[in-house]
Amino acid sequence: MDSYSVLYSSSHRTGLLSGFQRLRSQRKMCDVVLEAGGVSFPCHRALLASSSEYFWALFGETTAERLAASVSLPAITPEGLDAILDFLYSGWLSVSPPTLPDVLEAARYLQVEPAVSICERFITDGLNADNCCSYANLAEHHGLSDALDAANQTIAMEMGALLKQSKDDLLRLNIQSLMVVLDADEIPGVKEVELIKLALDWLNENGPLPLLKSNLLLSRLRFGLVAPSDLTDLSHACRAMATPLIRSQLTRALEYHRLGSAQPIRQSRQSTLRVSPNRVLLVGGGSGPDWPEQQLLAFDPRSRKFSSLSCSLPLRLRNHCVCSVGGFLFVIGGEEVTEGDDDGKTSVTVATSNQVWRYDPRFDRWEKVGSMLERRVQFTCCVVEDAIYAIGGRHTRSDTNTHTSVASVEFYDMVTGAWRRGATMPRPLYGHACAVLDNNIYVSGGQHGNRGIIRGSNHGDTQNDHRESSREVLFWNLKGKEWEKRASMSIARFSHRMATAHDHIYALLGMYEPFCDIEQYDSQSDHWTRLRPLLIGSFNYGMVSTPSGKLLVFGGRRWSDGQEVIVKSVLEYDTKKDHWREICQLPRPLTGTECTLLPLPD
Known about the structure:
Elements: H1 10-25, E1 32-36, E2 39-43, H2 45-51, H3 53-58, E3 70-72, H4 78-90, H5 100-109, H6 113-125, H7 132-142, H8 145-157, H9 159-165, H10 167-171, H11 175-182, H12 192-206, H13 211-218, H14 228-234, H15 244-257, E4 279-283, E5 296-300, E6 305-308, E7 317-318, E8 321-325, E9 328-332, E10 335-342, E11 345-352, E12 356-360, E13 365-369, E14 380-384, E15 387-391, E16 394-397, E17 402-405, E18 409-413, E19 418-421, E20 429-430, E21 433-437, E22 440-444, E23 447-448, E24 459-461, E25 473-477, E26 484-486, E27 497-501, E28 504-508, E29 519-522, E30 527-530, E31 542-545, E32 550-554, E33 557-560, E34 563-566, E35 569-574, E36 579-585, E37 594-598
Parallel strand pairs: 1-3
Antiparallel strand pairs: 1-2, 4-5, 4-37, 5-6, 7-10, 8-9, 9-12, 10-11, 12-13, 14-15, 15-18, 16-17, 17-24, 18-19, 20-23, 21-22, 22-25, 25-26, 27-28, 28-29, 29-30, 31-32, 32-35, 33-34, 35-36
């Protein structure tokens, strides 16, 4: 058998279309005329039938149109038909925002799916605040799911601008898109009461709707984010707000506002802010260690930008602890620094505090909650199963100016709003760090206030009493009655930091450490491993572990040429790659800040 080859020419197909286009422009060999809006378009029946399911069926063997000299297409416009015919004859689709509706209508009607796909991509690529509502309506009308999803997301992200500049566009939005938008977890810069007013205005503009539909729309609103006084007014706003379903949601929102201290553990979708993923909140600290500021800085890990919160800390604090529960910020203990006037001279007073303050970002409001049983500074805190644990520390007796270290542990009961005693550590400890892994608490390092096994008692130790930093690691779970020892760190640490990421615990350097080494703890093997050292040795910095498993280090102090320097650097440690890098800088030098993750409104 003789051999043979099959070769392909891409230019032949292009030339074939060019030939048909030339014949069409010269009106040669055209065997059918398409009419739309009084405009005639001579065409070739064979090309149309081979390019469109609609024309294949129209020119079939049993149809009346198969031999007709002209075919009328009243459902589409001349502009739309012209664009689609150009596409069938050349492969190029001419489309612009003004012609898009006509072109898409023609492409969908004539079943030219490649042209429909091009129109969908045109919508998705060109979305902005000016066209997202009209594009959402267009995509919903033609069943373009990808374009509709993209348009709905754009509406949610641009809602602030739309409410100010294009509310009429929102009132003309299709109900499916409006429901999706009101279901969004992120609508930046918009208060919930504005979304409620939008929904009610939309119902007035497009109603009356069946109560089932209005219920489906209004049930996507988050009434727990609205002040009680506004909720009362809204309940009488219109008939749609008076249905049993919506009234029950309003009742639950009012009950949520009356929960008091239990609010953080009774969170639901109805009371969850519509904000971007948690930002890092930097609480307190200052440009020097002795005079802390009352500032609150928010850091967005995505944009790597800082912003200041409008509110400030109620007190000037240092060596305090912070944590977040249920979207609330808790600021606990520390040293309260106040300025006074002593015989005409400015004086600074430092007092150890047991106060606890709670910040609600939903309403930008501070509230003083139940105080700790003991005053604490240089202690540590953590959250396990929605309870805040305060562990160890020390306080200063103002009458004798001596430090008293404590071994006690207490936890904050959200239901009662009171602190209760927990399992006491084996000995007093301060300057230590803690982390939570699998609902178990690990405490490392610090300095022992007293020697020996001491339970539930405090012993004074003077201010000039210097002790060795500890390598010891203690472990406690909620069911245990006593603390247990785990493998010690390879480095003795004091005033250091610990964090959990990817099922491991990381210990970072503190004060008095000659090197910048960090180490990782594996709870399965009960073993510590040294990792890549910190880029720049520092202490008194803020640190947080992000959901992606990266550690962020903010500011701090370090020694340079025999002098103490406050730094502005923000460092990132990738726990998977064991890699450090500087990602940005703080707006100003900062030391003594405490960090936590918190959802914050824009």
